[in-house]
Hints:
Structural class: mainly alpha
Shape: elongated
Number of helices: 7
Number of domains: 1
Helix content: over 70%
Order of helices and strands: HHHHHHH
Distance between the termini: 22 Å
Largest sheet: none
Amino acid sequence: MPPAAESASISKGALWAGRIISALVVLFMLFDSITKILRTQQVIDATVRIGFPVSTIVGIGVTLLISTILYVIPQTSILGAILLTGYLGGATAANVRASPLFNTVFPILFGILAWLGLYLREGRLRALLPLKS
């Protein structure tokens, strides 16, 4: 399907809703990755509490930053969503293992929001996964 046809199949409301949802996801992921790269004390404490060595924090932050950048770029947004899903799956697993159930809600919610935002704004994904009413 040509790009113009993809854009035509998405309403302005869905496109803007997708952009807003995606922007919220991106802002959260950027904040999370930057605090890991800067190794803030809160991040160090949480990482140790979950059971990861402090030496992994920067690598996790860089991986998240790259995944988020790929999510933002239209040509690589689906790859970025897949990578963010993997990251958030790991966060869910770590939180289930080490934290109260309440902490597992956030990575699951952000994974859903990442895909919802992408679905609402990306014609290629809608073509791949059409929802019938």
